[in-house]
Structure formats: C-alpha cells, structure tokens
Amino acid sequence: MRGVISTVATRVTVVMPGLAEGQVLTGGTEPGDIAQFYLRLAVHEVVIKLGAQGARGWTADGQSAQSRSFAVTPIDTVGAGDGFAAGYLAALLAGGNLQARVDQGAAVGAPVTTRRGDLAAMPTRAEVDELLAQPAAPA
Hints:
Shape: globular
CATH topology: UDP-N-acetylmuramoyl-L-alanine:D-glutamate ligase
Number of domains: 1
CATH superfamily: Ribokinase
Structural class: alpha+beta
Helix content: 40-55%
Largest sheet: 4 strands, mixed
CATH architecture: 3-Layer(aba) Sandwich
Order of helices and strands: HEHHEEEHHH
Radius of gyration: 15 Å
Number of strands: 4
Strand content: 5-15%
C-alpha cells in the first residue's frame, strides 16, 4: 500500500493526511517527518491534519504554517477532514497564502464536528467568515 500511495503522491500538488494516516503511510512519527517524506517525493504542498489542534502545512519552497484552532464542542467528527480539505483547496484556488489556506481549512472543518453527518454538516460561507474574523487565540 505504501508503494502505491507514494507513487500517486509524486503526481499530485497537495497531500493532506491525518497524523495517524501519515504515520502508517510514511513510517514517520512527527508531522514534520511525514511532510519531509512527501516533499522529497516532489509533492508541492503537504498538510498534516491534527484534529482539534488544527493542521500544519509545508511547501516545497520552504514555507510552513500552523493553522488557528477554533473552540467548538464536537459531537461527530465524520466529515471534518473533508471540510478541512474543501476549505484549504478553496483558499488555494482563490490565491490565498499558506497561512490563509490552513486557517480556512480549519475554519471549515471545525464546525463540521458540531453537527451530525458529513455533507449536510458543512458550514456556510458566512459561518466560516465569522470564525475567521474572531481574534486568534494566543499561542
């Protein structure tokens, strides 16, 4: 399985595993190790989803970013990763920088966990914008 996934990864622009997936697929244990595995395969961007801790992203040109995290009370995590990916890719297509991309991904994924289901749980643009307008919590 690792070989097939690694071969496919050489042909994509962005790889977005969760931490556990990345550990299984690469043998790396830390987000940075997993990212470096994919960057060595010539992937342009790697984002490691970290659940309630948001996500970390790296680019082939040396940029890195840690997303904001948003305080929510989760009831169902189904679809949160898909929501993150949708938010991230929308920001990528809109020309957002790496920080904006990981933040928007987190702002889409977080509210998905507060509802049941996957597609039906996706937030509206207004809900995402409201989260992004909140002041970032101190690191």
